[in-house]
Design goal:
The structure holds 2 protein chains of 2 kinds. By secondary structure, chain A is an alpha/beta fold. Chain A has 5 domains: 84 residues, Glutaredoxin (3-Layer(aba) Sandwich); 210 residues, NADH-ubiquinone oxidoreductase 51kDa subunit (Rossmann fold, 3-Layer(aba) Sandwich); 84 residues, Ubiquitin-like (UB roll) (Roll), CATH 3.10.20; 88 residues, NADH-ubiquinone oxidoreductase 51kDa subunit, iron-sulphur binding domain (de novo design (two linked rop proteins), Up-down Bundle), CATH 1.20.1440.230; 56 residues, Alpha-Beta Plaits, CATH 3.30.70.20. In chain A, helix 5 runs antiparallel to helix 6, helix 7 packs across helix 8 and helix 15 packs across helix 19. Chain A is built from 21 helices and 19 strands. Chain B is built from 18 helices and 17 strands. In chain B, helix 8 crosses helix 14. The radius of gyration of chain B is 25 Å and the shape is globular. At the A-B interface, helix 15, helix 16 and helix 17 of A face helix 2 of B.
């Protein structure tokens, strides 16, 4: 019988290792070391507030169990039975990348994350790691490697979707003998953690991809630009680099071939704009991370004015599989123009938030409802935001649209790097956009006028609207400023800063008008536009609202209608939420 | 001015339907200028690389999804460019509206009033109202240097000052601090300029499109002195001022207005119109003698490095204090003249030296700092120069006086401290001090004048110029650097030689902090470019050629000064009045 591996993951806020120790204890006490092994998992691709265990090789995931259930879980697993704690997301996995019809996921990038000890190069190699490097340096020319990547149809996963193979070819074509390869690990969208998970869960995958990239374009030095806020990823990457060097996979004459390549880490201080490639290069060079005009593109003149090839983490993580299984295989996955899979970090008002990896062309409905279990607390779906502060909203009417680069663009959003924030009926569009705009305003490098000033001006207008001082001409003003920003900003950050607000105006203009003309916010998020009152006809005088009110501004006698003191009310909505008789009105 | 560089290969592009041939590598902005199409821009300065920050110069290029910035996009063969249409106007105007919303509405009280690039754009775009909420940052004004005033409220974030300070001058005093909307230009570390590495060269102020960086304005103090009946006001004009001052009145760059300026000074109420060129000749006598003394008695102490540029003095004291021993002890010419005005001149005309008020008209902001640099600047017993005005300030002062400068009849200088030779006037251009010094040093060693007085090797705009002068068998190796960025290269070469115990590569070095020398100083009229530098330089060399005497040692007023007062070069009195000391200064005071 196959040995069973129990990958135990425990949320940080709980007592660490409680469940891990429980599993160890049972295995040791019952002398099951031959049949079962418990492994501390640092990442299982989903987040939960309770411990999770994933049993391999079957891939069953259980959550919601207690320490006393551990023995049963182990017994069941060893006897081929399943336990009652099955996780709804059913996040199965297999050793080699293949579609999983049950979960609708398809793990290429995340194929190892959670199943290997990320700090063990042996684990990675055991799962076929670094065989692509071996294949490439001994049996492929750089040109044939590029041809494979071109055939795969892989496009940049950082957001813009530029064809990766073409970018490689352009860099290879440059005559300069010194070229650089850079991994953009400056992930910064709110709610996005795809790249961090890859680096923390499978660092060698990224390194292998970069080695292949270095071989393809003829570079001997790579850099990983990673934000200092990712200390675990940094630690694991450092360890992985050292391990790869020891195994002769990095450094001089890789695997005894005449190809030499090494990688260094460069820490960023966490400026969002440093994800823009020219700003990133400036930062690696030790300068202030400001974008510069393109052309010249980095493929012609990048780091230290040398031809430079930059891709983000997820793009790199696709390369080993493409080399291993061939570009043609990869091209069978996805839609006509968008090949392969995409990792999304699903967050927000969703039952099972976490990372999902799905083939391009999967619908939002499948991601949100089938994979992630739908909206929390039975609330109504309002929209999802893709592309974070550079993207836009996808309203209900597009739930069944196939997600790829082109379709998202056609409805005013973008693929972005993979953040997918789910909003329900309680989210106010004006309020949400204030958040995105504040983010972009804070993260603008401040160099070019349209972005530096335009974002701040739109934010001011939104502030004004949510305070009840909006005027009808404000919408026109937003549109004018947005136009100037989109057309005249130097880099993508400024060009896309107005996207969320423009996209929400496209689908939710009514909601803006409700704020501006009606001076109302139906979700209650804009506190200056909402007031809570008790409907005396409905109030039975139970006093629950008064008990819950955090500022004790509700008073009354039992069994008589209560009253809210408007001068003290902080509009938290607690009374509205607790009243069982719909006696609190919001308006 | 078209910044078209001959790259050898011509390409064709179409601009607004019109075909234009340009050199490969020319930007769209310059290609358009060639067919007399002006694409508006706020941040691009003809003297600097594009910072691409304002976003006003965007144009349409056929088959390009996005608008491109004309300032930094190189024209490519066959490009079809649209520079003006309704949409472009709307985008540009919107961007300008956004910029104006962050700029204080203080045109009437601004030093740049009617000489401001933002104001001009607002006028050209027909701005009649401000649609967006005013968001002027409330930040304090920095007048700590008393040479350059930084008013960050007025900054439009174009980045020219940072570029010139970091990449051209390599001083690294100015930097962008903070991010996003809060981005502001300030000394790194958020300190005041006086406590920063700033050398007061004023190149930032010469390149600023608005009133965010300007000269420390002292015009009103000069007016006050002039109306004080107790004071005996005298003024001197620097070599480089005479070829640029006319620009303020619509005259051509390089046009010599020396005689008109003497007349102007007297009309304004100055009791004497002196010329710093005279003091330049005196500097040559002192510095030339210093050099010859070192060359003949202690050649190991060479090179001798010139010291007429106060921004350079500050740069050396901050960045290369280990090279102080090589520095000439000569004060800058206007300081020498100031010291003499309050001693020699005061004695001769019988005026109480405490009542003599000396105003220098200089191309320079650093001279404002220099007048109070150390106790040596009070060698007469009083502050030797009371106020140093920049060319730009003096243009404004003249305009406010009601005098029609262009119609003034040229007058002669007051001879006691005024007569000058061609050698004195070329101080205004890079290489000029060296050339003047060679002319006299050659004479001092050989007793003869050079056959050809023109020393072409040290002329021109090349960043570092070197040459060898044969002085009766002794090969004197000279080097000239201008723009402190280039100066660094030269000083590092000296440092390297010193560290390795190798012989010094040069015997005599001239340094000017500003590119092109004083003709393009930080206090000169705006919109400097290499083309403008050449025009002003041509005016300087024309003046030299037209001088009857072209070597300092033949200046009759200088001879008289030594006979009557100073005795001889490097005399005790000379040392007291005309020489100074240097100290190592920290880059940062905090």
């Amino acid at each position: 019988m196959d040995k069973k591996y129990f990958f135990v993951w425990e949320p940080e806020k709980l007592k660490q290792n409680q469940m891990y120790n429980a599993f160890s204890k049972v295995i040791n006490e019952k002398n099951l070391q031959e049949k079962a092994e418990v492994i501390k998992s640092l990442f299982l691709g989903l987040t939960a507030d309770t411990p999770v265990v994933k049993i391999m090789p079957e891939g069953n995931i259980y959550k919601g169990f207690a320490e006393s259930d551990v023995e049963t879980i182990i017994d069941n697993a060893l006897n081929g039975k399943t336990s009652k704690f099955t996780c709804e997301c059913g996040n199965k996995n297999s050793k080699v990348p293949e579609a999983d019809p049950q979960s609708k996921q398809f793990k290429i990038v995340l194929r190892n994350a959670g199943y290997i000890n990320p700090e063990s190069i042996e684990d990675y190699i055991m799962r076929g790691g670094y065989s692509a490097v071996e294949k490439a340096v001994f049996s492929m020319t750089p040109d044939s490697l590029i041809a494979e990547v071109k055939a795969s149809g892989l496009r940049g996963r950082g957001g813009a979707g530029f064809p990766t193979g073409l970018k490689w070819e352009l860099t290879r074509r440059e005559k300069d003998p010194v070229k650089y390869v850079i991994c953009n690990a400056d992930e910064g969208d709110p709610g996005a953690y795809m790249d961090r998970s890859i680096m923390e869960g499978d660092p060698h995958n990224l390194i292998e991809g970069m080695i292949l990239g270095g071989y393809a374009i003829g570079s001997s030095q790579g850099f990983i630009y990673i934000r200092a806020e990712y200390p675990l990823a940094i630690e694991r990457l450092e360890k992985a680099l050292t391990a790869a060097r020891e195994k002769g996979l990095l450094g001089k004459n890789i695997l005894g071939s005449d190809f030499s390549f090494d990688i260094e880490l460069r820490w960023g201080a966490g400026a969002f704009v440093c994800g823009e490639e020219t700003a990133l290069i400036a930062s690696v060079e030790g300068k202030r991370g400001n974008p510069r005009p393109r052309p010249p593109f980095p493929s012609v003149s990048g780091l230290w004015n040398k031809p430079t090839f930059i891709n983000n983490v997820e793009t790199w993580a696709n390369i080993p599989v493409i080399v291993e299984k061939g570009g043609a295989w990869f091209a069978t996955i996805g839609t006509e123009k968008s090949k392969g899979t995409k990792v999304f970090a699903v967050t927000g008002k969703v039952k099972n938030p976490g990372l999902v990896e799905v083939p391009m062309g999967t619908t939002i409905r499948e991601i949100v409802f089938d994979i992630c279990g739908g909206i929390n607390n039975g609330k109504k779906y309002k929209a999802v935001q893709t592309g974070g502060p550079s993207g836009g909203v996808i309203p209900e009417k597009f739930l069944d649209m196939q997600v790829d680069y082109e379709t998202l663009q056609s409805i005013g959003s973008i693929m972005g790097s993979g953040g997918l924030i789910v909003m329900d009926e309680d989210d106010c569009m004006v309020d949400v956009n204030k958040f995105y705009l504040q983010f972009s305003v804070d993260e603008s490098c401040g160099k070019c006028a349209p972005c530096r000033i335009g974002g701040k001006q739109i934010l001011e207008i939104l502030e004004k609207i949510t305070k009840g001082n909006g005027e009808e001409k404000d919408v026109e003003k937003i549109k004018s400023i947005a136009m100037a920003m989109q057309k005249a900003s130097l880099c993508a950050l400024g060009q896309t800063t107005p996207n969320p607000v423009m996209s929400s105006l496209m689908y939710f203009e009514d909601e803006y008008m409700q704020h501006i003309k009606g001076k109302k916010c139906s979700t209650g998020k804009c506190k200056d536009l909402v007031s809570y009152t008790i409907i005396s006809d409905k109030c039975i005088g139970c006093g629950l609202c008064a008990q819950r009110c955090p500022v004790t501004c509700i008073s009354g006698e039992k069994r008589k209608p209560y009253l809210i003191d408007q001068s003290k009310c902080i509009k938290c909505g607690e009374c509205y939420a607790v009243c069982k008789f719909n006696a609190v009105s919001r308006g | 001015m078209i910044q078209e560089i001959n790259t050898g290969k011509m390409i064709d592009v179409v601009i607004n339907g019109e075909k234009v041939s340009i050199y490969e590598g020319t930007t769209i902005l310059d290609a358009a200028r060639k067919v007399n199409v002006k694409i508006p821009t706020l941040c691009k300065h003809p003297d600097l690389d594009a910072t691409a920050s304002c976003g006003i110069c965007v144009v349409k290029v056929k088959n390009n999804r996005k608008l491109l910035r004309a300032c930094c996009t190189k024209a490519e063969p066959g490009m079809e460019i649209t520079t003006h249409d309704g949409e472009l106007f709307e985008v540009r105007k919107n961007v300008l509206d956004l910029i104006l919303a962050t700029h204080p509405n203080e045109c009437l009280t601004c030093l740049r009033n009617r000489n401001c690039e933002l104001q001009t754009l607002a006028e050209e775009f027909g701005i009649r109202q401000q649609p967006y909420k005013a968001m002027v940052k409330e930040l304090p004004k920095d007048v700590s240097t008393k040479a350059v005033t930084l008013d960050p409220r007025k900054c439009v974030g174009c980045g020219r000052c940072v570029d010139v300070c970091q990449n051209i001058q390599k001083v690294h005093a100015l930097e962008f601090l903070d991010r996003g909307f809060d981005t502001r230009m300030a000394p790194a570390g958020d300190i005041v300029l006086k406590e920063s590495p700033c050398i007061k060269c004023g190149q930032c102020s010469a390149h600023c499109p608005v009133g965010a960086l300007v000269e420390f304005d002292e015009v009103s103090n000069v007016w006050e002195a002039l109306r004080n009946p107790e004071l005996h006001c005298v003024a001197q004009i620097a070599p480089a001022v005479r070829v640029a001052f006319g620009e303020g009145f619509g005259m051509e760059p390089g046009e010599l207005v020396t005689g008109k300026m003497y007349a102007l000074l007297r009309k304004l109420g100055f009791k004497a119109a002196f010329d710093t060129n005279f003091a330049a000749d005196l500097t040559i006598m002192e510095e030339g003698s210093e050099f010859v003394k070192k060359l003949t008695t202690e050649p190991k102490s060479l090179p001798l490095i010139t010291s007429c540029c106060p921004a350079w003095v500050d740069f050396l004291e901050k960045y290369y204090p280990d090279l102080i021993e090589h520095f000439s002890t000569c004060k800058s010419p206007h300081e020498m003249l100031g010291a003499l005005a309050k001693t020699y001149y005061a004695q001769k005309i019988g005026v109480d030296p405490s009542k003599v008020f000396v105003v220098s008209i200089m191309p320079c902001t650093a001279k404002k700092y220099e007048v109070q640099r150390s106790e040596d600047m009070k060698s007469s017993g009083y502050q030797d120069v009371d106020i140093s005005l920049t060319t730009r300030e003096f243009v404004r002062m003249t305009k406010s006086s009601g005098i029609d400068f262009k119609s003034l009849k040229p007058e002669n200088v007051d001879s006691m401290l005024g007569t000058y030779t061609g050698a004195g006037t070329i101080f205004g251009a890079t290489g000029g001090v060296m050339e003047a010094a060679i002319r006299t040093a050659y004479f001092l060693v050989t007793g003869k004048n050079l056959g050809t007085l023109d020393v072409e090797a040290v002329r021109g705009l090349k960043g570092i110029k070197t040459g060898v002068v044969d002085v009766q068998g002794t090969k004197v190796r000279v080097a000239v650097a201008h723009g402190t960025g280039n100066v660094r290269t030269l000083m590092d070469e000296l440092r390297e030689a010193k560290a390795q115990g190798k012989p010094m590569p040069y015997d005599f070095i001239e340094v000017m902090a500003c590119e092109g020398g004083c003709i393009a100083g930080g206090g000169q009229p705006y919109m400097v470019s290499n083309e403008l530098r050449r025009q002003r330089t041509a005016g300087i060399y024309k003046d030299d050629k037209e001088c009857a005497i072209r070597v300092s040692h033949e200046n009759p007023d200088i001879k008289r000064l030594y006979d009557e007062f100073l005795e001889k070069p490097l005399s005790h009195k000379s040392h007291k009045l005309l020489h100074t000391h240097y100290v190592s200064r920290p880059l940062y005071y905090k």
